[in-house]
Specification:
Length: 136
């Protein structure tokens, strides 16, 4: 399965009045990590839209468990990997750690989003074999 990791220093503006990372930023980091991982492995969203005519990798479900707080100036590592996939969707697991201590464990389920030709509605469709081989 493909993986990706990046380092981040928590900024003052990412914290709430309790001086811990405000939870929407966790989901922003998940999203960034997912899209950067895909781009790093040759599946940038813009390229996938052009090559396969998809809308992108829309979210179906998200989840996060908060284990330890992260505060301003903490150095964190965001690690992501494609954990599983089916014909139309794939799960990306995310871990955010500081000093080798797990702070957040979460996941996103994303689909291969395509617009229906006759209605223009977005729906999940089968992922091409070359994409499945690459992420698996």
């Amino acid at each position: 399965m493909i993986q990706f990791e990046w380092k981040h220093t928590v900024e003052w503006g990412e914290c709430d009045p309790a001086r811990i990372v405000f939870y929407p930023n966790i989901y922003r980091w998940f999203d960034k990590s997912s899209l950067d991982m895909m781009r790093f492995h040759g599946f940038g969203q813009a390229e996938m839209i052009e090559q396969f005519g998809i809308v992108g990798f829309p979210l179906i479900e998200t989840h996060a468990e908060y284990k330890r707080p992260m505060r301003w100036n903490d150095e964190v590592i965001v690690s992501s990997c494609v954990d599983s996939y089916s014909g139309r969707s794939f799960t990306i697991t995310h871990k955010i750690s500081k000093s080798d201590l797990l702070c957040v464990l979460g996941y996103e389920i994303r689909c291969w989003g395509r617009r229906e030709g006759d209605t223009g509605k977005m729906k999940a469709s089968e992922m091409p074999d070359e994409f499945l081989r690459a992420i698996g």
